[in-house]
Design goal:
single chain, mainly alpha, Na+/H+ antiporter like fold, 82% helix, 0% strand
């Protein structure tokens, strides 16, 4: 039953939303907190760049069919499904929440949890490391481009060069600097994972607090009802179920072995909260739309994907154990 319970970070996210709802930050304090949040996000992506080993990139990049499959799922199939969700009437799925779902569909894959579930299930871990990391690198360019493209098709805006510039300066530049310094500081940063973990999660919590504070000041909880949130949960669950089926059975149809199938299933079906929240803060900073409403579907999707993938990873792992046991008995 423990795998169905929220993890510690999800509990912290919930507490942050509650805090923003009760004590939203505003005025001059919000401006200073915004500056501190930008610094924290820059540090977050610097650490991402410094952690990623170049040897890992070289070792995994040769498996191009697997990586291409994951990228197409992440940045093509997901957005198409997002557009199909647009056929749901606005009276059922509110427009700001649908914008959040569209934004979710163009985000890169997760890194840590994709690798963890792939390892747990007995998949191709080196390929998962490269695929998830590469997805986030490509996402710095593709997410703002696809966001503008999809929003223009729905009449909610278009591509913004300001948003792209913000992504490049706030996210990509620190990542590149970290990657340049990786040969000298990479091993030290990887060895201090527990000490530096608060930077990862703390920066996300800071953005969530700032975004929801602004949203609460704009009347977020007066705009959306419990029914609206329930609809988002159902849509998120259906979206994840469809993509899991596409990745799992599609990998088999394309002739991938079981280890690669596991990697494609987990890396191709997940969406990154760690990258998504800072990107939303950059892309929608100058728009009238509420960032809080836009990141809400992503936050819900985050917990849903963790619970679903935990069950699937365990089933893969059990199947692997049965296979190993049968092989040992046959050899005996």
């Amino acid at each position: 039953m423990s795998r169905f319970l929220p993890d510690r970070f999800t509990v912290l996210l919930i507490c942050t939303v509650i805090l923003a709802s009760v004590l939203p930050i505003h005025g001059i304090y919000a401006e200073w907190f915004d500056v501190a949040t930008d610094i924290a996000i820059g540090l977050l992506f610097f650490l991402h760049g410094a952690r990623l080993s170049r040897d890992t990139v070289v070792a995994g990049i040769l498996h191009w069919r697997l990586h291409l499959t994951i990228l197409l799922t992440t940045f093509a199939i997901f957005p198409i499904l997002g557009l199909m969700i647009g056929f749901i009437p606005e009276s059922v799925l509110a427009a700001p929440l649908y914008m959040g779902i569209l934004f979710l569909c163009v985000l890169p894959s997760t890194v840590q949890s994709s690798i963890a579930f792939t390892s747990m299930a007995g998949g191709n871990v080196p390929a998962a490391i490269v695929a998830a990391s590469g997805s986030n690198i490509f996402g710095m360019f593709l997410t703002p481009l696809l966001t503008g493209l999809l929003l223009s098709t729905t009449g909610n805006g278009g591509f913004s060069w300001d948003a792209m510039q913000s992504i490049l300066l706030q996210l990509l530049l620190p990542f590149v600097v970290g990657q340049i310094l990786q040969p000298w500081i990479g091993n030290w940063i990887r060895s201090k994972k527990k000490i530096l973990a608060p930077v990862d999660r703390g920066s996300i919590l800071m953005v969530v607090y700032l975004a929801f504070s602004e949203a609460v000041m704009e009347g977020l909880w007066h705009t959306f009802s419990a029914t609206d949130i329930a609809v988002v949960i159902v849509v998120d669950m259906a979206l994840l179920a469809v993509v899991l089926c596409i990745t799992m059975f599609g990998a088999r149809l394309l002739g991938f072995n079981k280890e690669d199938e596991i990697t494609i299933t987990f890396c191709g079906s997940k969406k990154s909260l760690a990258s998504g929240v800072p990107m939303a803060n950059a892309i929608f900073a100058n728009q009238s739309s509420s960032i809080g409403a836009i990141v809400l579907p992503l936050m819900l999707f985050h917990q849903i994907q963790l619970m679903a993938c935990a069950v699937i990873a365990q089933k893969y792992a059990n199947r692997l154990k049965l296979k190993d046991t049968a092989a040992a008995q046959a050899a005996a």
